[in-house]
Amino acid sequence: MLGSSNESEAIPGGSCLLDFLTTLVSSFQDFLFLAGRAFRNVVRSPHYYDDVFMQMDIIGVGSLPIVIMIGAFSGAIIALQMARALSTYGASSQVGTIVSLTLVRELGPVLSAVMVAGRNASGIASELGSMKVTEQIDAMRALGTDPVQKLVTPRLIATTLMLPCLTVLADAVGLVGAYLISVPLLRLISAGEFWSTSWRALVLNDLAQGLLKPFIFGMIISLVGCFYGLRTTGGTQGVGRAVTQAVVAAMVWIFVVTLLIDKVFVGL
Amino acid sequence: MAASQEPILEFKDVSLRFGDTWALRNVSLGLSPGETRIIFGAAGAGKTTLLKAVIGLVKVDEGGIKLFGRDVTSVGETALFPLRARAGVLFQEGGLFDSLTVGENVEYPLLNQTANRQSVLHDVEGRVRDALRFVELEHTYDQFPSELSGGMRRRVGIARAVVTEPPLMIYDSPTAGLDPITANTIMALVAKERDVRNSASLIVTHRYQDGEIMSDFRYDQQNEELVALKSAGDEAKRDRTKFIVMKEGAMVFFGTKQELESSSDDYIRKFVRHGDE
User: Fold this and answer.
1) In this model, does residue B227 exceed pLDDT 60?
2) Are the C-beta atoms of residues A122 and A247 closer than 8 Å to each other?
3) Which residues contact A226 (CB under 8 A, 6 or more apart)?
4) Pairing mode, if any, of strands B36-41 and B241-247?
5) What are A198-247's pLDDT values in tens digits?
6) For A201, which of A70, A97, A127, B49 could close a Cys bridge (C-beta 3.0–4.6 Å)?
7) What whole-number distance in Å separates Cα of residue B188 and Cα of residue B184?
8) Is the Cβ pair A142, B95 closer than 8 Å?
9) B234 — phi, psi (to 5°)?
10) Cis bond upstream, residue A164 (ω within 30)
């Protein structure tokens, strides 16, 4: 069978696999093309500043409550779990160090991104998807405005700027959550010792990856949401499908990119 | 007057296929300021594709399309935006942005088109209210499209299309699904736009009466009403309107209303309303 000229016929499902891979590569190519146009528009006129500020409000301010809540609870949960584990080795005083490193390096950026992906990748995909199926995107093109410039670039800028800010807040609130568990509740260490170990645990490498991740996640979330929104077909059912695909794809990419960034920073 | 002016639009042997189906087949036509082309055809005959090809929303396989002297078939999407900004488009359902108010919809081209942005920023609201007054809907300024009737949405669509005073107007089925009174109101606005601003018009429609209004009437600005063209002396004005019938992507008829009515072709005669009907 090997070397046969009609392998796809010989192997059941061979052509299906080929079609699937072709679609996958073609979609990724379209995604890169959209991303390229969106980035290029950042420096090209016209600039829709009103839309950028409106999206910053929707994505940044709108996501504030949920990100703060998740940050506080994740900090508290890590402190609670670590308190028990560390006490086994008589290292309860290290709780601040562990929480600080875990939050700033991984959980702060990833959990904030997951929350914003759930909230905003879906919002962006449904908004743009609805516009696509009701021909408002075509109307926009016909009216002489570039939908990528008007819709995608403002969302890209807004998400990329706001997610690092949200992450810093989530980290800070997470440490407060961990403090409340470790100091007043469990009385593992003193307040001064907690804040001192938390701060000293962090080096430039931790802060760099803690800020780089949300910066890249912001790009992923906005571009994935816009990509699936703009390629919506099939009416309202298609909008639902686009939303699901956008959220799933954004979350998968967040974890893939986390691994890649970790690989780079661990080696530094 | 029109004959001496530079054509706004030129189609030369334009063809486009979707798979095995011809969407456009060797279509050639021209359009100068003040002229009107009424396009008839069965569903799937290529009427809407032709309109989309004019402003580069679809790319054709063969032939050349010149819009305002520039070949739209060889330029990229970004280069098309300034050209599209010079064409007003009315979509079949109005194509309004449902999250924006009527006023925001009409001001959209003024604020977002690069070509028009700088020149009007000082008086956007005035221009928007003028456009809404033109379609007699100034009172809907703060309403959302969902609060309006189908005919009103279509009129807001016309206001949005004319607000930048484009030299070319493209109407995709402006009267589809409307009652006769509202349809005539819409067509009166279309004729008014043509005669007040001397704009060129490309109109896809299924109603023969729409073509009749454009061919046999002119807008009287003093009395603000449509008046019938005289049978003698107004031939030049009547000849500004030509009819096109499309079938399976090809133009099977091009001529005046009289030539259309005298056609013996069964397919073409389906689009003509006869005296006894």
Assistant:
1) yes
2) yes
3) A34, A38, A124, A125, A128, A151, A152, A155, A156
4) parallel
5) 999 989 988 999 999 999 999 999 999 999 999 999 888 999 999 999 99
6) A97
7) 6
8) yes
9) -110, 20
10) no
Interface of B with A (CB under 8 A): 55, 57, 77-78, 81-87, 89, 91, 93, 95-98, 108-109, 112-115, 117, 160
Minimum distance, in Å, between the CA of residue A153 and any CA atom of chain B: 14
Residues of chain A contacting B84 with CB distance shorter than 8 Å = 141-144
Give the separation between CA B97 and CA B105, rounded to whole angstroms: 6
* Residue whose C-alpha is closest to residue A242's, from A18, A27, A38: A27
Enumerate the residues of chain A whose CB falls inside 8 A of the CB of residue B57. 138, 141-142
- Using the 8-state DSSP alphabet, how is residue B94 labeled? B
Across B229-259, b (16+ Cβ under 10 Å) vs e yields beeeeeeebbebbbbbbbbebbbbbeebbee
Task: State whether B112 and A150 contact (CB < 8 Å).
Answer: yes
What's the whole-number mean pLDDT along residues A114-118?
A: 95
| Alpha-carbon distance A134 to nearest alpha carbon in chain B (angstroms) | 8
Whether the Cβ atoms of residue B15 and residue B62 lie closer than 8 Å to each other: yes
Which residues in B lie closer than 8 A to residue A135 (C-beta atoms)? 91, 93, 95
Rounded-to-integer distance, Cα A53 and Cα A65, Å: 19
Structure tokens at B274: 């006869």
Task: List the single best residue of A40, A55, A143 to mutate versus B (max B Cβ within 10 A).
Answer: A143
Across the range A131-157, mean pLDDT stands at: 91
d(CA A64, CA A168): 11
A242, two tokens: 């686009």
- Ranges A159-163, A241-245, B177-181: which has the least confidence: B177-181
pLDDT at B94 over 80: no
d(CA B237, CA B217): 9
Integer CA distances (angstroms), B67 to A124, B54, B56, B84, in order: 34, 7, 10, 9
The secondary structure of residue A46, as a DSSP letter, is P
Q: Which CATH class is domain B2-86+166-269?
A: alpha beta
Owner of token pair 């999206």:
A55
Give the model's pLDDT for residue B115: 61
| Amino acid identity, position A136 | Q
Block residue for tokens 């300021």: B33
- Cβ-proximal residues to A44 (8 Å cutoff; 6+ apart), any chain: A149
CA–CA separation, A230 vs A233, rounded Å? 9
What gap in Å lies between CA A31 and CA A192, rounded to an integer? 49
Cβ separation of B95 and A135 shorter than 8 Å?
Answer: yes
